[in-house]
Amino acid sequence: MELRHLRHFVALAEEQHFGRAAERVYVVQQALSNSIKNLEDEVGVPLVLRTTRKVQLTPAGKEFLEAARATLAEADKVIERARRAARGEVGRLTLGFVSGLVFGGLPEVVRTFRQRYPNVSVELRELTAQEQEEGLRSSQLDIGLMLLPVRDPSFVAEALWRQDLVVALPSSHPLAQRERLNISDFKDEPFVFFPRQIRATYYDQVMRWCAAAGYTPRIVQEAIEVPTLLSLVAAGIGVFLPIRFFQRVSLPGVTYRLIEGAPVVDIVAVWRRQEDNPVVRAFLTVAREVLAVERIGEE
């Protein structure tokens, strides 16, 4: 039994006339008559009574009409769901991210995406860059958001937005009284920072920047989470060089200042090169739009 037979039957039942029903479903009258006859042969009982003036349904036809309408309605839902899936409007997205992004960019992107695509289930996983790469390879993740460059040729990486580094100082520090500083101003200052194994690229970039200014930062305390590092700053233990969006973390005792010539950090989205999930494409489109306003120099 084909869906077109059901559509022909419903049109005939509602129009009660072969000519009008044929026009409605865009076939010639003889083709419609043959379609109804084939349907009756398959069902095994007469569904319509043919008279010279109009068409009437048999008792079996009346029962069949309700079922035919329900079947067509369900078929339309299935077809529309498939079309929406092809547009990335339904489905599931598993997104990996490094912890710091909860303070800049990620909440805005996810909120906008969920508003625009309410029928897509979004699962967020806080992971290191290495864990995200492993998740992408095993198809446990659809997209990763990280700070590290990715050299695996099986992945595509796109810098979605860029942020420069700033300095977080104890509010009582004399340098906090100045609006803009230079990296050489921290030559004799104690630093708090991530362990290198947690943020290798970030760590190395800061080390190179300081080395170009003629010194190696004296790291007196390490921590793996930004809020912890900022708490250490507030306690006067040292200075910290976070990405600019961490200025959103307002902590008593911490003052943020711009640094002349500060390097920038790329925040990248990573996905499988052969990825064909429309939901991934939809998310990337939203991320590009939202994060455009987060680009360096717009704050």
TrEMBL record:
Belongs to the LysR transcriptional regulatory family. PANTHER family: HCA OPERON TRANSCRIPTIONAL ACTIVATOR HCAR (PTHR30346:SF0), TRANSCRIPTIONAL DUAL REGULATOR HCAR-RELATED (PTHR30346). GO terms for molecular function: DNA binding; DNA-binding transcription factor activity. Residues 1-58 form the HTH lysR-type domain. The lineage of its organism: Bacteria, Thermotogati, Deinococcota, Deinococci, Deinococcales. This is LysR family transcriptional regulator. PROSITE patterns: HTH_LYSR. It holds the Pfam family HTH_1. Keywords: DNA-binding, Transcription, Transcription regulation. It comes from Deinococcus psychrotolerans. GO terms for cellular component: protein-DNA complex.
